[in-house]
Amino acid sequence: MNTSSNTPWPLPFWIAHRGAGKLAPENTLAAFRLGATHGYRAFECDVKLSSDGVPFLLHDSSLRRTSTGSGLASAQSWSELSRLDAGSWHSRAHAGEPLASLEAVAHFVQANRFGLNLELKPTPGQERLTGQVVGREVLRLWQGQGQGQALLPLFSSFEPVALEGARKTAPGVPRGLLLDSPRESWLDEAQSLGCVAVITNYRLMDAARVQAIHAAGMKALVYTANDESVVAWLRANGVDGIITDAVDRFVPDH
Ligand code: G3P
Ligand code: MG
Residue 243: CB within 6 Å of ligand 1? Predict the structure, then answer.
């Protein structure tokens, strides 16, 4: 597989947050499908590990908010997790929607040639392990893909250690550092992790930061921009990609 430095940039400008933001149950395949019906060709989602090491999509450490389960998701096996309803909390229309395994997501995005931003969202204490296992699993699932066929995912994380773990097992899969609040070392951290992108809270991005990121040879992306004036301002300042919940309001133009 390619190294990060010569792997093509895998994402278009518009990226649907957690599948399709808030219009369908976040981080499920139903959300990906809804985002696709709005013209989105790339998706951000949050990945963590079951107790038996299966990568699957869930934002929170706890199951409570977005499924019929409760307690720490990392304490339950995939066989237990895969029986939960991850849709009825959102709406009756989505009752019975299962949690999505990374394997199912891989099949969906590869079949449709969609881009994928895999946010490593480790259960606290599992940062390195999550990066390593997801890295290994991405290599297995995307084996034989790439090079003009299906694109590799972009890994991202707020946790540098998770990105280190992914770099260890999947050095050729590109990485982006997520930044929610300013810290002095952010650019050095991104460079020393071999990142190809820095993805900030949109409130942190301005022209100077875009320039610093570009000068370091990386892409500048933001999350989660849902407002038209904010999006216009970000585009004017040269950002390379926007992660949004508002898939019904922003028509992806590239
Ligand atoms: O990956 C960008 C964004 O998803 C980070 O925030 O909390 O929605 O995962 P969060
Ligand atoms: Mg996320």
Answer: yes
CA 107 to chain centre: 16
Quickly count: other Cβ atoms within 10 Å of residue 54's Cβ. 18
Domain parsing of the chain, residue ranges: 14-244
Looking up tokens 């893909």 gives 145
Average pLDDT of 53-80?
98
Asked if the 14-244 domain carries CATH number 3.40.50.2300, the reply is no
For residue 254, CA distances in Å to 15, 19, 132, 242 come to 10, 17, 32, 11
The rounded distance, in Å, linking the Cα atoms of 226 and 114 is 21
What is the pTM assigned to this prediction?
A: 0.96
Nearest residue (CA) to ligand 1, atom 3: 223
The residue to mutate among 11, 14, 17, having the most atoms of ligand 1 within 8 angstroms of its beta carbon, is 17
Tell me the pairing of strands 42-49 and 55-57.
Answer: antiparallel
Question: pLDDT for 144-184, tens place per residue?
Answer: 775 555 589 999 999 999 999 999 999 999 999 999 998 99
